[in-house]
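One example copied in:
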Amino acid sequence: MQASTQDAVTRDYLGPIFRGFLTTFSNRGESLTAYWDREFPWQTIDQTTLDAGKPLLVFGVADIDTGRRVMVGFPRLPNDWYSRWRCEQTANGMQWTLSDKDHEPYSLSSLQLSGTQPNVRLTRAVRMSSSFPFGFEPTRIAAEVPEPNNGSDDHIHFLDGGMVDNTGVDSVLAILSKIEATNTSNCQQLAEELRRRGVFLIEIDAGAGSGEVATSGLLSRLTQPFGGYNRGVYTAAKRSRDRSVAELYTQFGEDFTTEPIESHPASDEVTEVMTTLALPEHDVRRLIASFENPKREKIIREALRKRYMELSDRDSLSQRKQ
């Protein structure tokens, strides 16, 4: 297991990107996607091949035509959860249009082309969710506006979901809220089970932050405006994230915990989370050690055990009252 982990994190992921950049009529994103298909057993996994009884995997993607989050679920989310379009009264009657009133995430499953929902492979979803601006070309999916409409979209374009929010908490809130609000036996049963077990929200690496900005020198005229814009976007995303967490806490009350779970002792000199595509050898050793350190494992296990006991005690008390 350790050897396979080392192989995975030391693998050269930058090579396919540069090959895509240098190869005529190719691009970095497609080159990297083809590489993932070759190196990992993902090429046969799409949104219809995963067992619906297994944990839901959701990729966050940004719709650059609307600025909204798109949820790409494995398996698919229901096709009537959060549509891209809104049916509104227009001068030509009721029509499906893009509305500036909609800001919440929508499901990729709500899109259709000739009556068929998109079915993306796992590697394609990874590509869609990690295509950061200027580094990769946008991905696109053919879709059509539901009838009646005043025109069809040939393609919808997507970039890195971090353009909207790098935490994905808004997608968690949207999915859990929909489960709570949907009056079907399956959703009600799932909602009850969520409340019985409680909710753990584990947020790992919410982004690199707004960074430092040069305030003097020749480059300051260029870096200050871009730096200020970057800080504003980052702050807005963090504020949106805080509001989503507050809403989750309001919905679930005691079923939702905000206890911090430290993944490393305070004595460790860890100032950043490594998210580079290819890691130097010393960073690889540090990354692996972070998962194997007995002290860290003990801290996480103790925090989880404590919360589990609290939830178990609450369930026992509720049953005794009944």
Notes: The longest helix spans residues 220-252. The longest strand covers residues 57-63. DSSP finds nine helices and seven strands in the chain. The beta strands are 57-63, 68-74, 86-90, 93-97, 106-107, 139-142, 155-160.
